[in-house]
Amino acid sequence: MRISDFIARTITRRRALIWCSVVALATTCVAILFTRMRLDSDVLNMLPARFSSVAGLKIYDRDFEQTRELTFALLCDPADVDKLEEFAPAFTEKLRQQPWCARVLAGSPMETPDGIRDLQSIAVPLLLNLEPQAFDETMSILQPQKIRDRLHRLRQQIEAGSPRPEFELAFDPLGLIAPALKPFAEGNAIEEEQPLTSPDRTMRIFLAVTSQPSISAFECQRLMRQVNLFRSQAREGWNGGPLEILVTGRAAYVAEISLSMRYDIVATLLGSILLVSVIFFVGFRRWIPLFGMGFSLLLSCLVALALGLLLFGQLSMVAIGFCAILVGLGVDFAILIFGRYQQARGDGESHREAIATSVAKLGRAVFFGALTTAVGFLALVLSGSMGFSQLGVLIAIGIFFAGLFMCTILFLFVRERQTPLSRDWVFEIVKKYVRWSVQRPAPMLIFSSAILLLLSAIGFSPVPPL
Other C-beta atoms within 10 Å of 340: how many? Predict the structure, then answer.
């Protein structure tokens, strides 16, 4: 028995079995999406990983950048700067009480015990950032004689009644922390009276370290929902003019860009489905097969996403956009297969025979068309970019399953008692066009050559510059 006859027999006689298989496949894919969905929002993963500069940026971003830090800003009118000064401590206390906030820096680190401990902990690594001459001078402080001289000097100052030596002994007993923090203090104005205040005092900056478990897109979205709720309630107690509460940081960027990309992907996908549905309906004037085409494309997207998550563990936000591309590619298979089915029914074949004929005549063409398209997109794996590699793999998987589903599942939405079209106006128009082109090739060649020359002139024109 030929494969086309087996497919036609299975679809017409064992529809319940096929529907159960489709439901099981869809349920499995949805379960994988809910349990393993992880989106990679790191822009650096879109760059080729083979370059040392990209690898260095990733190491810096992973090990040195504070990715869980949010920067808040209070901005008021110039007439309310005194009220802002009074409101800042209350805002800081409210920020510290938030469950997602681990620490807050609202002023100089020297003002709090936690800040002092942090400075002591980062002082030793900062020694390695000193210039060679400054580093040698700092290391010379550790000589035994200089340590004795320092302690003797501090003891004399304590006996003279000065409180500064006691603080210096508690904060920097060996004298290494001050030289290590000197470049940092100069660049960030730690010793200023109000280091996190704008010169005109209309803006105050607050640095907050969050307790989010990861910096994934979903975690950042969840955190920013809580942050925005806090922003809407944080103005309580302010009795001045307009007060803006601004926030930025890695979590804010990831949440905003992921939500924007989600909207773009959904809008593009729905727009693609709408356009191809209109084209399909205009050509065949059938609603149920139209739903079958959409269902087959959606199922192929689900299968590609599920397999992509199993292969990569997490998917890039850019790779998720493959759905819109897949819709545009997969609809061709539906139009070819269903068009051949309609032609077979118009020739007097039964429902089962028409299915077998359409699969037999176009099944191989659809299979190799899907295969060549998949191989073409798989070439993106060689780009070295994780995002584009995932995009190529997802499109390759999706287009293969789209061709398979169009030759099988699509016919579940075709009714056996459906009457064939009495007159195919699209076919009539194409037939007249082909006859006219063959009988009078000169006008077609002249017209197409003129269009080609016009497009070439526009393409090579210096205005606008490329």
Answer: 20
Residue 308: other Cβ atoms inside 10 A: 23
Residue 100 is given by DSSP the state: T
Confidence of residue 191 (pLDDT cuts 50, 70, 90): very low
Does pTM surpass 0.85? no
User: What is the sign, positive or negative, of the torsion defined by CA atoms of 190, 194, 197, 200?
Assistant: negative
Dihedral pair phi/psi, residue 216, rounded to 5°: -70, 165
Q: Quick one: average pLDDT of 294-315?
A: 87
Q: What is the DSSP letter of 458?
A: H
Give helix 250-284 / helix 217-233 axis angle, nearest 10°. Answer: 110
Instruction: Decide which of 3.30.360.10, 3.40.630.10, 1.10.220.10, 1.20.1640.10 is the CATH code for 3-36+286-421.
Output: 1.20.1640.10
Name beta bridge partners: 248.
71
Average pLDDT (180-196) is 57
Mean predicted confidence (pLDDT) in 29-50: 75
Q: Where are the domains of the chain?
A: 3-36+286-421, 108-195
